[in-house]
Amino acid sequence: MSLPFILDITIGLVFIYLILSLLASEIQELITTILQWRAVHLKKSIEILIAGDVSKSDDDNVIQLVNDLYNHPLLQSVNQEAKGFLTTLPRKFIWLLSSLPVQLSLSGQKRTKSIFGYVKNGKDDVRKQKHSAPSYIPAETFATTLMDTLGLPQLVQKLTESRLINFTNQQLDEIQNILLRLKERIDNTDEDVRQFVENIHNEFNQTVESNFQTILADFPKNQADLHTSINRMAKSLDRYIGYFAADMPEHELISNALQRLKVLRTDIFDDIEQTICLKSLRPNINEVVQLINVGSEIQQEFINEFKDKDSEAYQTFQYLSQRLEQFSQKLPPSVVGNMAILAKRAQFKAKSTEEGINILRREIEQTFNNSMERASGVYKRNAKGVALLIGFAIAIIANADTFHIVSRLSKDTAIRTAIVSNAGQIVETNTSQDLKLLREATDQALTEISLPIGWNQVNLDQQLPKTTDSKKSTPSFIKNYLTMVAGWFISGIAISMGAPFWFDLLSKVVNVRNSGKKPAASTHEQATEGKSAY
After folding, report:
1. Which structural domain range is residue 180 located in?
2. What is the spatial distance between Cα 449 and Cα 447, in angstroms, rounded to a whole number?
3. Are 483 and 395 in a shared domain?
4. What is the pLDDT of residues 454-490, one digit of tens each?
5. Do 165 and 123 fall into the same domain?
6. How far apart are CA 303 and CA 325, in angstroms?
């Protein structure tokens, strides 16, 4: 048996595997699309990531939180669907088929009979099932969506607002105490002095206190950041001190009061960043995340920080605490724990709250990517199992018996030659592993050749030959039948390996078959090459 003969049989066998693998890929892609396996697997993977454990991924709180993530505008924008009656009609049939496995599962009722959750339909709060979802989510989109759903940016804003209100009230009280102390100690017999004290007190109410309240009102509207707000307070106090110094009469107590105002101004407003740091006006990201954990030590510290129940700062923080308590009841404990770990890591690297939020977002992105890598491995293993089942089914339905195929290729020269010729043309015209082009090329090749597969009488007679001897017919039939089943099994495994694998192998075998000793160049070509060398 010569080497070219063996290569021809190998090319024929690989070519048949390639054709059947293309069919298997088409069937698997169709099943994947109808049942939305990629989107379903992605959502379940996110539920496992949120829960921190596979056994807890079906908890109500986990499902609810992931549904909230999928209802976020950022994730909804990832999932694009065509509109129109003719387009949605076949999709409705696909939605029906894809919903059957969920409805038949034990967790179907928990998921409101839809793996992708629901959407609110109008103002009546009617739940409408979602029939589709994205099969891929960028890591940065997931991180931003999760932080926004947890309310971390809003939590930073509200906490900063509460602390700014508390800080502003403290400074106003300090100034007020200086003025009241001056008023108590001043001699009221001097009309000019008395009138000055009354005027500066009114000026304080009309200028400083009014400006500070305006600044506080602008902060939650995002009209000014924390640094700008405190800088505006400093300028307002500067104007007041200037007015105080310009109109004050010669008096020791008034001079002392002015000096105290200047000291207060220098101590608090000269270095704004230092004041923000010392007064903890800008909360760090670890504190923000720990606030989600209702009942934690950090939350208790914040509650103690806002003691005056009549103050605006307390009311702002109280509203925040109530919202957090309601939210925490729906939040899976694993989310709080995982976020706390990531927040601590982010805090070590961050120099400001804004930087801490960005670092936390990157930490979430990295965690999501790591989780999706593991989920991708699981999906590939599951897809491989499905590919094996499809491969076995195709091998049986097409009667693709490897042993019979090899036997026919070794005996039938016409089939072997036709297959080798078409295989060579396909390899030459398709340098890339484009499955669509390969399907078109193989479909054209199948019109010209007849493959040694199928349940026709010719194949069956060769696979299960009849013997005239009745004593030997039964054992021989069993042996042939077992050989045929073993051939199906081998073909099924081969088909599941995928079309790209067999096309790559076919290219290599064809190249080996076509390779040979390079022909010598003609005398004219050698002369031409010699001239071009100079």
Report:
1. 152-278
2. 6
3. yes
4. 888 888 888 877 765 555 566 777 888 899 999 999 9
5. no
6. 13
